[in-house]
Structure formats: structure tokens, C-alpha cells
Amino acid sequence: MAGQTIFEKIWQRHVVASPAGEPTLIYIDMHLIHEVTSPQAFDGLRLANRSVRRPDRTLATADHNVPTDPPGTPIADPISRRQLEVLSENCVEFGVTLFPMGHENQGIVHVIGPELGVSQPGMTIVCGDSHTSTHGALGALAFGIGTSEVEHVLATQTLPQQKPKTMAVNVTGPVGPGVTAKDIALAIINRLGTGGGAGYVVEYRGAAIEALTMEGRMTLCNMSIEAGARAGLVAVDEATINYLRGRAAAPQGEQFETAAAEWRTLVSDPDATFDAEVTIDGSALTPALTWGTNPSQVISLTGTIPNPDDFADVAERDAAVRALEYMGLTPGTLVTDIPVDVVFIGSCTNSRIEDLRAAAEVIGDGHVAPGVRALIVPGSHRVKKQAEAEGLDQIFVRAGFEWREPGCSMCLGMNPDQLTPGQRSASTSNRNFEGRQGRGGRTHLVSPAVAAATALAGTFALPEVAR
Amino acid sequence: MKAVHILEGRAIPLERSDVDTDQIIPSDWLKRVERTGFGRGLFSEWRDEKSFVLNQPEYVGATILIAGPRFGTGSSREHAVWALMDYGFEAVIAPSFGDIFKNNSSKQGLVIVQLAAEDVAALTELVKGNPQLTLTIDVARATVEVAELNWQRTFALDPITRERLLNGWDDIGLSLRHESAIEAFEAAHQSGSIRGVFDDLGRVVHSNE
Ligand code: SF4
């Protein structure tokens, strides 16, 4: 028998039924919930008189809407407040564990899943959120679903799924100086395009990926959806096992060792084949940023803003013309000459402890440039606590950054942290869509290190390590 | 969900590629807890522009949207589908679509018509030439047709989506036909439950230590 990919191993272990001519019914091990995509699903359950089948495989947190003001500040927006209340009411009614705003375990859903050990290798994990692919970093099959599917999983703990195809993305190593997981992710999206991964589950492999920390792998898998992929994952290795050891919901003691032995089998067999394969030369990568309004529009920090005429493809050229207009940029401008108004370090892509350490290292004893608003928003209360224990908050505050409460914050314009029309940001989030960070806002996606260097310089800047 | 057999209506050409779900329904609209009323938020960042195609009188009342490649990429928000349908769209025609969007559409009965880029371009020109043209989408035959111009194309429609559209089937009901298989799976597959990990207040209790 031909070897299997990790994806195939996980898939096979979760098949509940495969009725002829219909999608396969697969079992869902863990269902993560947040306030935005769940209210209509709970409503559907109520209407059909159904219950949550497995509350012990369901976990809820508040993240998208929560303001990141100091604790105790009331939520000014009544509609946001209502949505958070509805989440609490639903969780009480249906018996689902919830981490509401301010709770010690609360945070962005894709930060808390791994950090609590709730997300584990070999699991099928879903959430009504496209960045669920993040959890693939642990060797899990994790993907985003819509609200009807949220309702479906709540009611049945299963999902009918067409089996996706597999793609291997090999990144050779070692990578160049200052190149982070974010830069690798941007390079991959640039190569595949925003639709290149559609229909695939991507397995990231190669020396550059093996060398990444778990946080780095989460950053990478997080952005799989930006290349259109259904999910992204990385093979289990000792880094995965060590990361999970001692985490709250991970098996403990002897049970952990038994589980770990099982998890170590979650690698693609040497003779496994993929439906598509892409190789990227890691040594050629540089710190990168997006210049346009979709995440495949990527250039090097040392580059210049491209000219639409450089694109052979007509649709890409048109997209470039519109993007440049929206972004208020002129072809040929040196990236490092472009001033920014706001720097945002946060989001489920880059708000983990390692991201904050990277930012703090770049900041050192520097100070935020005059006129720049700079925010650092930890991904969870646990990350916040850890950062404070390490004194990182002191570095940030002294340097002139705002050190805020956990949440999705400026990743999307659903809470008070927003760009105003025309403002330009260097952001560690994952989407540079028009208006994503607030109406008329102009977003450039970067790594935490580049964001920190940019905050100090006032224009896009390379951190010292990358020079 | 309502059964869909044949859709007949006028179309509106969006002529934009990479229309992501943030553009279809901006995140501000995601705070609502209801399933209705999202039509007002559809493309709301663009609706203020007088020249935006949805504001053109000749296209008022169109029920079929024609868009460029990669329509509905980005976030998983089903609100994008609710917004399109609440506004009055019954089908979207484009060369390609975001995966989750396509999936979400099939749950609500929004018909996704994927055609070759040149066919979408041709159809766009036909509609721009005469906004009053009637298009017919036949789900059973998976065709889109402009009868008066004798223009017809077939689109790919997987059998199960087709059956669901034609019968208006509820997915949950379909899956629950396999209740005994789900129970058997659960009996054999215990790991990964968080029972006992958190107390009623969500604090970690570590009962398994
Ligand atoms: S941080 Fe941004 S991308 Fe991540 S879950 Fe929140 S809104 Fe979505």
C-alpha cells in the first residue's frame, strides 16, 4: 500500500460514514466557538429543538468584539455588548464552557486553543472562523466553517465533507537573516496567489519549517487561508510534543507519554504522494510586507512599490492599479521611505509570547517615532501575564506603545480599535483587504520585528538583525 | 432551506476580481445576532459611490450577480451569503470562488455558477449591452442560458449539492440518518474530550492529574 500523508491519516481515523455519492461524514474532535458566528447557529438549534451533542468537545471564548481598554471599562457599543451577552446566554443554556471577557483563560480563539492544550495532534478541529487553520501547527486537521456548519457540528459533532486534495509546500533552509515565520507565510501566499491553495490541505515541510518554533508554525498555518487553502498543517516532532507537555487540557503524566507515542506517528510516510507540490528556496527570502489590498501582493522591505505594467496578467494589473489607488502609493517609491500612522502588533497571526519577545528585542531602549500610534495587543490573558512576568510590558510602555487587554483588536474593524480613513498601518495581522482595519484604512502586513522597527523609525524599517 | 429548481432573472455585472467577504459585508455588520437584515450592508463600502453598479437604475431588481475571479475569498462569515440573499440575489456567476463561501452558499440555497473566465466575460458584455436580458439558471441541468440570444453554458455542480438544492434538504437531518454510526464512533474514540478540565467558572481544575 502506498504511504499516507498526515492529512490522510487524520482523515481516515475520523470517517463516521461514507455514503455512496455523498460527501464523507467526518467526526469533529474539538469545536471552538466565538460570539460572531455562533448566535444564529444556537438559534437554529432552538428552533429545531436540538441540543449541543458534545459540550465536552465544545469551547467558547469572546474575542472579536471585545474592547481592549483597561479592565472594567464598559462596552460602549450596545450591539457589541448584546452579541457578547447572547454568547454567554447561549453557553449557559446549552452547557458550553465559556471564557468571557476578562476571564483568565480568555483570548483570541486561535491563541487559547493551543495554549490550553485543547488543540492536539491528530484531532479534527473546527471553528466558525477562517483562521482555524492555525491549529494545524500542532499536526491537527483544522479548518474554518460557516454558521450553518457551526450549527451542524453543535447538533451532530460531525460534518459532511468532500475530501480535499493535498499539497506539499517545501521551504528549504536555512532562511536568510531576520526572516521570520510571517515572511515565509507572505512568500508562500505571493507564490501561490490568493486562490492557489483552493481545494487543498497544505502540508508545510522542509528544513525552514522544521526549524520554526511552535509559535512560528502557528503564524504560518494561520495564513493558509490567505492562499485559499482549506487547512495547513505541519508534521508532529519533538517541538510539538514539548509544547504540549503540561498544558491544561493535554493528557497528564503517563497518559501523556501514551498520547505522545501516538502523536509521533503523525508524519507523512516517506513514500506518500501529494496532489501538488511547490518548493520555495528559503535562502532567497527576505523580510517582507504587503503593498496592496490582497495578501499575495508582497514585496521585500528593501524593495520599491511595483508598477502595474510589471504584471503580465491583465487581472493582476487591474488589481494593482486599484490597489495602488486605494493605498495611496506611487510606483517606484522606496518601501523604507513610506511613513506610517499606526503600528499594530497583535491578532491570531502574531500575538503570542514569542511575537512579543521579538518586538521587545527590536525595541530595546528605543522610542516610538513622533506622530505614530503604536499598539501591542496580547493574544490572550495568559500571554499578557507571561509578558508581564518577563517585564516586556515595561519595555513597551516606556517606548511609547499602548499595552492593551487581549482581543482581536485592530485585526478587523469590529471593536473600537480602528484606523481612520486614509491612515496607513504596519500590522502583524493577516488581511490587508480594503477597510479591514476600519473604513478607508491602508494596511501593510508585516512581522512583529518589522512592525517594531517601523514604529521606532516612523517609516517602514528593517530590524537590526536583518540588515 | 427552500428548494431551488429554475431561476429566472436579470443580471448585474460587478466587474471586479478578488471580491472578498469583507467587501461583501464589512465586519461592522457582523455584530448582529439575527439572520436577516444584512442586505442593507451588502457592499456597503462601495454603495455610497453613485457610480457603483448596484446604484444604476437599469440594474435595480436584478437577481443574478456576475463577478470576477476569486469571489468570496477571505473570512468564513456566512453573513456574506445572507447579505447577498437578503438583498435579493439568488445566484452568483464567476470564474472562481472562495471555498468556504461556496460551501456556505450551498447551505442557504444561493446558487453558485462557476464558468470559464471567457464565458463570464462574454456574459458580462451581453448584460452590459442589454441590462434587460433574462438569464435562466436550471439547477437540474446545471445550465445557464440567455434564451433570446441562444447563449447557453453548462456549469459544474456536484451531485449532492444539486440534490440538496432541488430538494431543499436540511444538512443536519441528512447527517442524523447516521446516528448509530456516530454513536459507534464515539464509543471507540474517547480521547480529546475536555470533560473535567475546567470547572463551572471555566477555571482549570486538572482533575486528570
Ligand atoms: S485576530 Fe483577526 S483573524 Fe484572528 S480571529 Fe480575530 S479577527 Fe479573525
Model description:
The complex is a heterodimer of chains A (467) and B (209). Chain A has 15 helices and 19 strands. By secondary structure, chain A is an alpha/beta fold. In chain A, strand 4 (58-61), helix 3 and strand 5 (97-99) form a beta-alpha-beta unit. The longest helix of chain A has 17 residues, at 78-94. Chain A starts with 5 loop residues before the first helix and ends in a 10-residue tail after the last helix. Chain B has 209 residues and is α/β, with parallel strands linked by helices. The model of chain B has no long low-confidence stretch (mean pLDDT 93). Chains A and B meet through helix 2, helix 3, strand 5, helix 5 and strand 8 of A and helix 4, helix 7 and helix 8 of B. Residues 63-64, 108, 110, 129, 131, 347-348, 408, 411-412, 429-430 of chain A line the site of iron/sulfur cluster.
> Could you say which overall geometry of chain A the principal axes of the C-alpha atoms support?
globular
Strand order of the largest sheet of chain A: 5-4-3-6-7
Radius of gyration of chain A: 21 Å
Rg of chain B (C-alpha, Å):
21 Å
Main sheet properties of chain A: 5 strands, parallel
User: Structural class of the secondary elements of chain B?
Assistant: alpha/beta
Q: Termini separation of chain A (Å)?
A: 50 Å
Return the average pLDDT of chain A rounded to an integer. Answer: 96
